[in-house]
Design goal:
The chain has helices at 98-101, 113-123, 127-131; strands spanning 7-14, 19-27, 33-41, 46-52, 58-64, 73-74, 78-81, 84-86, 110-111, 134-136, 155-174, 181-199. By secondary structure, the protein is mainly beta. The protein is extended and about 65 Å long.
Length: 212
């Protein structure tokens, strides 16, 4: 199953039981759609993942929050360099959320053509309309801010974020008797993304964490 295909149905918080629940529809590799529930019990410090498969088999996993976890599969790190600047006045053509969430950024909002193409495909919006809200950038010749000693020259600033553990797919094991595969848990993954974008001078890139 692909967690990029999750569709949020409900996010419920109940103050009496101190329980939060996240319910999603998940499309499996076989093409079946199952309803999956992820519940957190604050009082018990546990997380429970539960779903019924297409054959009505009920699968439940309980995880204790205090356990230190390491992802089973570390996905390749991806570095993206912004090549588009978003015009704040028409940013609603890309998303209704940008002007609300990025009001303090003004015209210092960046993206990549690759991400814009994907956003157009996922949202069903017209790509030409979306790209009309942007203007091209050229960051190829800019020095990397973290590697330059000149504080007043334009440079490419970087920011890295990582998700070190998240459930990414079903885990399959093989039966020792007939060697047939069966579902035996949830596979966990880790990933990181690094974005580079231009700034007028190095002093505006104080949050660069790419060397950490």
């Amino acid at each position: 199953m692909s967690f990029s295909r999750l569709v949020l149905l409900a996010l419920v918080f109940t103050s009496t039981e101190i329980l939060s629940e996240f319910i999603v529809n998940v499309k499996t590799q076989a093409g079946n759609v199952i309803k999956q529930s992820i519940k957190e019990d604050v009082a018990d410090s546990s997380i429970m993942l539960e779903y019924k498969d297409w054959d009505l088999t009920k699968v439940t996993q309980v995880k204790k929050q205090e356990t230190i976890r390491t992802s089973e599969d570390r996905l390749a790190d991806i570095v993206k360099t912004a090549n588009l600047s978003v015009r704040f006045s028409t940013a609603h053509l890309l998303s209704n959320h940008i002007q609300r969430l990025c009001s303090r950024a003004g015209d210092f909002i960046f993206t990549t053509n690759e991400d814009l193409l994907k956003a157009a495909k996922d949202s069903g919006k017209n790509y030409e309309t979306m790209v009309s809200s942007t203007k091209p950038l050229n960051t190829i010749r800019l020095p990397v801010c973290a590697h330059t000693s000149h504080s007043s020259v334009p440079c490419a600033c970087g920011y890295r974020f990582a998700i070190d553990w998240y459930p990414c797919s079903l885990k399959y094991c093989k039966d020792v008797v007939d060697n047939k595969p069966y579902k035996c848990g949830i596979k966990t993954c880790g990933l990181s993304r690094q974005y580079q974008f231009p700034v007028p001078k190095k002093s505006m890139c104080w949050f660069d964490n790419t060397n950490m």
